[in-house]
């Protein structure tokens, strides 16, 4: 059950069933980023020295004074890492990669996504380009061979990150 107060009245409703919701690649990327932010915050709060320094910094800052330390760390992480670059910058950079490496449309679209969000995996590639798994694997492997991406992990946990950015 969910309790909400709207215009002074308490509303009780059933918890929404989100099991059939199809998330876009952007939503999935942000969910992964949020997951990383929570892991980062938990690890920072485990260290006593780091936690003490954070609490001291929060006391000095009136905006942070009444907030939860976990929320502060998550917000800071998201602010730093939300978008790697703007869509316009990413488009310009993709054009430069296209001129240098002759990428196909699928590779260009996924490279733009990667420049904005920082990483991509096979599943996201398939969703962005509506491609089959073998096509996604082949295209991503080609980008690795061209020294545009680097591959980390094995199997379903494989992620791809930009190896080196061209200048904008």
Report on this model:
The protein has 168 residues and is mainly α. It folds into two domains: 23-81, no CATH class; 87-162, Arc Repressor Mutant, subunit A (Orthogonal Bundle), CATH 1.10.10. It has helices at residues 25-46, 48-60, 69-81, 87-101, 105-117, 122-129, 133-145, and strands at 2-6, 9-13, 120-121, 149-152, 159-162. The strands form two sheets. Strands 3-5-4 form a three-stranded antiparallel β-sheet. Strands 1-2 form a two-stranded antiparallel sheet. Helix 1 (25-46) crosses helix 3, helix 4 packs across helix 5 (105-117) and helix 6 crosses helix 7 (133-145). The N and C termini lie far apart (50 Å). The relative contact order is 0.09.
Write the SSE topology:
Blueprint: E1 2-6, E2 9-13, H1 25-46, H2 48-60, H3 69-81, H4 87-101, H5 105-117, E3 120-121, H6 122-129, H7 133-145, E4 149-152, E5 159-162
Antiparallel strand pairs: 1-2, 3-5, 4-5
The proportion of residues in beta strands is: 5-15%
> What is the number of independent domains?
2
Low-confidence stretches at least 5 residues in length (pLDDT < 50)? none
The CATH superfamily of the largest domain is Winged helix-like DNA-binding domain superfamily/Winged helix DNA-binding domain
How far apart are the first and last residues' alpha carbons, in Å? 50 Å
What can be said about the biggest beta sheet? 3 strands, antiparallel
- Count of strand segments: 5
Decide which structural class fits the backbone: mainly alpha
User: What is the helical fraction, as a range of percent?
Assistant: 55-70%
CATH topology of the largest domain: Arc Repressor Mutant, subunit A
Radius of gyration: 20 Å
Strand numbers in spatial order across the main sheet:
3-5-4
Assigned CATH architecture of the largest domain: Orthogonal Bundle
